Amino acid sequence: MVPESPPMARARSRRALPQNKARYTHPPENRSDDSGWQSDRFKTTVLVNLTAIMERMDEQILPAVYRFLGQSFHASPSQLGLLTLSRALVQALSSPIGGLTGHFYDRVYVTAAGCFIWGTFTGAAALCTTLNQAILCWAVNGLGLALVIPSGQSLIADFYSPATRGKAFGTLYLTGALGGMLGGLYATNVGATKPLGIEGWRFAFLTVALISTIIGGLTLAFAKDPRYAAPTSLEAGPTPKPSRHFAWSDLQLILRLPTFFIIVLQGIVGNIPWSAMVFLTLYFQLMGMSDFAASLVVSIFFGATAVGGLIGGWLGDWAAIHYPNHGRIAVTQFSVALGPIFALLVLKGMPLGGSPGIVALYITVMVTFGLMKSWSAPACNNPVFAEIVPARLRNMVYAFDRCFEGAIAALAAPLVGYMAEHEFGFKGDAARTGDPDEDRHRAIALGGALVWFMALPWICSLALYTGLHFTYPQDRARAALEADAEDTGRRPDDLDLRRLNHGRPSDDGTEAT
After folding, report:
1. Confidence of residue 115 (pLDDT cuts 50, 70, 90)
2. pLDDT band per the 50, 70, 90 thresholds, residue 7
3. How many CA atoms lie within 13 A of 85 on its CB side?
4. What is the 3-state secondary structure (H, E, C) of 285-306?
5. End-to-end distance of the chain based on CA atoms, in angstroms?
């Protein structure tokens, strides 16, 4: 009898699987039709990255025009922080809705609907005449963002194998950060003008709303959910058909994973600094930089984090190959450890002012840290999530991650404003007074609050990541055994689990003895 080749054996094994389950830890060989520009994977990946660009742009245009909103609505920093809080809180609490809709229905439709919702209410925010109206519109905007993020991340996880997910998520982080960079640069500089007789910040909101709606239409027309596509569009193997039910046991499976719990817990504290950084543009403006210089420094920082995310994804994949149980975590801990240094140096250790030399100094420091500070999600968090849960639950794990992390981290923006006003002496609206000394004093007050909300959370996040060295190997091994059991029909036992925990990765991505 002629023995079967490995590809034939794997193909026969897959045909025997139930339709609602799929193995995701043993990807097949790459197929030549996956890489062409006409393939479903290519088109969907491009469109998911375009939605990531617009999602981050939509998030960043608001803090980029804080000074102009403060003038229009006569709002203080803490009041402006409520705008960011309303969006982030609704986005976080609505993320399970995004996860459930993506779990039940075509994720392309869910993503397009999110684009249409956030585009509509970003445009509506441009028409508001009071701060309360803007808070309401920006809150509903968060619902649209909540629909897009979990579906986009799970689509990337389904289209790419474990060996390349770090690069895929790094690219997604890169494009999203570029969107934030372009949004901040565009909105801050347009905000100081009156195109077509419209206040600049309103014009910026309207244009971003229009482009977001167009991207939603393109996604609806050309993207494909692999659960509805032919298997040849996948690098990561067959993907389970969408389930029409979501059992309480599925949620329990996610919530009782120690690795999930630790990543979410560190994400709660680790996202606080990024939420607080919405005040960076205002901080640079008050210290004496021009609107263009302030937007340039912040935009270049986000550009550096974009490239840094891609670097982090590559390093995470490399570390996972050589050190499968600890590599991704170590790469991330190095990146997180730089955070407190960054906060103290930028906000306490550098001169204030707006001269070309000072601007160049800030750009140099921000670029250096941006390249090294943005590795966590693409190097560790997102790839690890894809490895520790069944493929059918990926949409939900990304959604609940956003829910738990974002709901608390969203409080950072108004609390920074409150601390700046009540603990460090910030007075008046979030706008320039015309007195350089007074503005510099207000910048120092705002910087003092920012240090607390950046350095301390990053220290806590670094400590929490240490726990993954103990939980991730076991959770990863258990997921690999469960996937293997689906193929073979046998029940994994404790002896198998112990062997996997101490094994090395085999060629197909699982642990071997």
Report:
1. very high
2. very low
3. 16
4. HHHCCCHHHHHHHHHHHHHHHH
5. 29
Give me the residue label for tokens 């949409």: 395
* Residue 127: strand, helix, or coil: coil
DSSP for 87-125, please give it: HHHHHHHHHHHHHHHHHHS-HHHHHHHHHHHHHHHHHHH
- Give which of 382, 422, 438 is closest to 171, Cα–Cα: 382
pLDDT of residue 35: 52
CA distance 131 to 73: 6
In three-state form (DSSP H/G/I as H, E/B as E, the rest C), the secondary structure along 191-236 is HCCCHHHCCHHHHHHHHHHHHHHHHHHHHHHHCCCHHHCCHHHCCC
Structure pTM? 0.69
The string of pLDDT tens digits covering residues 223-274 is 998 887 655 444 545 455 555 455 566 677 777 889 988 988 898 899 899 8
Mean pLDDT of 32-50: 75
Q: Is residue 226 within 8 Å of residue 158, measured between CB atoms?
A: yes
Residues 328 and 319 sit within 8 Å (Cβ to Cβ): yes
Which residues neighbour 470 within 8 Å (Cβ) at sequence distance 6 or greater?
none
Q: Which residues of 42-64 are buried (b: 16+ CB within 10 A; e: fewer)?
A: bbbbbbbbbbbbbbbbbbbbbbb
411-425: string of b/e by CB count within 10 Å (b at 16+)? bbbbbbbbbbbeebe
